[in-house]
Structure formats: C-alpha cells, structure tokens
Amino acid sequence: MRRLRPAAFGAEPSGARLERILRSPHFVDGAFRNPVPTRRLVTGSPLPGLRAILTADRSRRVPAAAVPLRRLTAADFAEPPASGLRTTWIGHATVFVEIDGRRVLIDPVWGERCSPFASFGPRRLHPVPVPLSELGPVDVVVVSHDHYDHLDMGTVRALIDTKAVFAVPLGVGAHLEHWGVPQRRIVELDWWESAEVAGLTLTATPARHYCSRGPRTSPHLLWASWVVAGPEHRVFHSGDTGYFPGFAEIGERLGPFDATMVQIGAYSDFWPEVHMTPEEGVRAHQELRGAVLLPIHWGTFDLAPHPWEEPAERSVAAARAAGAVLVAPRPGDPLEPADPPALQLWWRAVAAVPQGAEQPAHGAPLPERAETAGTTPPPEEGTVQPDGVPV
C-alpha cells in the first residue's frame, strides 16, 4: 500500500513549472546550484551536528525567563509610517514591512512549531506578538525558501483569504498550490528576475543555502534572498544564507537599502557554509550598502548549539566595531529605519548568562542591561528538527 504523504511536505514541481526550472541557468546537472561551492554539513553526515545539539547545555539555549514582547493589535497599524517605511519584527525571520503605502509580509510563520508534525519539532520560545488577523490587509507575501521556519503551511492557508500575492523562488509555488493558493496569485522568480506587484518591484537575489521539506531533498526547488523596492524606499531580506561574495553585487545592482534584514542566528561549525555568523551578517549588511541593520533568525526557535542570546550580543559588538547602525527590537516592536531607536539590550534581562560572563565573548563591552516589559509563558522543553539538519 502506498503511504500517504503529509500535506506539510508540500508538492513537487511538475508541468510548465518544472519545464521553467529545467531552463534556469542556475539548474545544473539535475539540481539547483549555489553561487559558490557549498557543503550543507562539513562532516557529510547530520549525526555530529545532531549530537552537538542534543548534548549542548539546554539551559543556555533557551531564555531563563519570559521573552518581553510588544503586544500588537490592528490599532497599532492604523496610522501609516511617517517616513513611508516601517518594519515590525514578528520573530525569527518573519518581518512585516510597510513600505510606500504597501504592506509586505516576509517569511510568515505563525505556527507553534517549525515542523511538519504538531507534536514534534522546535517549539516557539515566545508567542507571536500579534494575531495574524490583526495585521489587516496584506498586499504581498514573500517567501525566501521552503524550510519549516520560513514557510508554514498553516500560516499560508490562513493568508489565502487576504487576497495577497505570493512571491517565491522557482519551484516553491508547487507547495503553495498544493495548500490551496490559486496559481494566478503566485509569482515565481529565478535569481535576478523581477516582478511588479502591487506597485512594488520584487527581485529574487542569490543566496547560499538549500531547500528541503520531506525526508529527501528535492533538486527542483530554489532558495533566494529578496529585494523589495517601492517608489521611495527599498529593503533587503536575506532569508537563510551562508556568507558569499555576492552581497556586494546585490548592493551595487539594487542598493543602497534603507534597511537590511539579515540572518545572524542558528549558526554552527557543523554547517558554516549555509548560515552566517553574526560577524558575517554585519559584513554582508555593509557590502549590501544598507543604512540600518535589523538582525533576524534568532531568539524564537532553538535550532543550534549556541547560547540563546549569543547572536544578539555578537551582532551588537560586530556592528559597533564596524561603525554600522544596528537596531535590536523586541518581537513586536515597530520601528522606522529613518529614525532608528536607541539600542536596548533587552535580552540580557532574560538570558541564562553564567556567573562572571556578563560581557560578550566577541567585541568590546556593551552598555548595561536595558529595562524590559511584557509577559509571555515560559518556554517549553523543545526538540530538534526531525532530520537533524539546520533549518
């Protein structure tokens, strides 16, 4: 008897979608290729990395107390941003961007776990700061790639009623159609391709990563970073990526950017070529010609052996050393890059920092702890991704 495939695994590209994939200049020898040679795991096996996650001090990889949030309702989005650009970090890689009168939701994940299973997989370390229904109209949903912490089936299905257009890399539209998104509302782009959607120019740009939702990796699904440009403002979202020289080219061709949203968490020596360290994230931001750096991909899910607060600490130190402007909002804090708020090290109040380790391991000493506010339920003991590889 044929086993049923879980709906969350999505679907494989076929028909005209597959034909377009096969014509892509980035599809070589039967699979999409990274812009530079890339190993997903330096050991060639997920077991050492999985062992590191399982044996690393769990108390350091989760907050010691409730993560402070800014709880939001529809009223918080009723007034448009004074500058024309406002970003709201929802958590992890999810960012709500209000740009030149349009509303863009990037890598939306409202699910409790980034997993195909309701009872297994990394669980949230803090609640979502705003119900999806409170965001109001969404013009465009942008997806960087198909990993569970960036593409959530339940969230996609909930967004179908918004009438938003979904912009995704080549092949990823097969998942969306499988979950009920009408094909006419899906825009699939190859690297360096652009589309005009809702008065914005969306461009899929290269990234150094991979796609995978099922037990085996599909060679027919592309990953991407994204540029969202309006008449007056433009932003960059990295999705997941290892560092590579292509950030400078993106900055030259499509920058400068009012804000860059760059992955700085879930790094490890076991997979250094598919995720960036905080220092690499700051370097990428500078090469992109970004004005303000919003670090993403940290704090919400336990996906790597490093301490929970380490990505934020190292990013702040690296940005200070480089003279870069960095913002570090709590989940749910809206901000306008044109008037970046003063840095508040809110995570220090809830981090499980050992005695005598108040200062970050990298960079210069940082200011004292900032005041925090808000309450959330305490984090629950979590688990690693089913296949033991980074998401």
Number of helices: 8
Supply the helix-strand structural class: alpha/beta
What is the CA-based Rg, rounded?
19 Å
Broad shape: globular
Query: How many domains make up the 3D coordinates?
Result: 1
The strand line-up of the biggest sheet is 8-7-6-5-4-3-15
Percent helix among the residues?
A: 10-25%
- What would CATH call the class? Alpha Beta
Tell me the total number of β-strands. 15
CATH superfamily: Ribonuclease Z/Hydroxyacylglutathione hydrolase-like
Q: Which CATH architecture?
A: 4-Layer Sandwich
Describe the main β-sheet briefly. Answer: 7 strands, mixed
Mean model confidence by pLDDT: 89
SSE pattern: HEEHHEEEEHEHEEEEEHEHEHE
As residue ranges, the low-confidence spans are 355-391
The proportion of residues in beta strands is 15-25%
N- to C-terminal distance: 31 Å
CATH fold topology: Metallo-beta-lactamase, Chain A
Description:
By secondary structure, the chain is of the alpha/beta class. The protein has a single domain, classed as Metallo-beta-lactamase, Chain A. It contains eight helices and 15 strands. It has helices at 15-23, 47-55, 58-61, 153-159, 173-178, 246-254, 278-287, 310-322, and strands at 27-28, 31-32, 85-91, 94-99, 102-106, 140-142, 165-169, 186-189, 194-197, 200-205, 225-229, 234-237, 257-263, 290-296, 334-335. Helix 7 (278-287) packs across helix 8 (310-322). The longest helix is centred in the C-terminal third of the chain and has 13 residues, at 310-322. It is globular, with a radius of gyration of 19 Å. The chain starts with 14 loop residues before the first helix and ends in a 56-residue tail after the last strand. Residues 355-391 have low confidence and may be disordered.
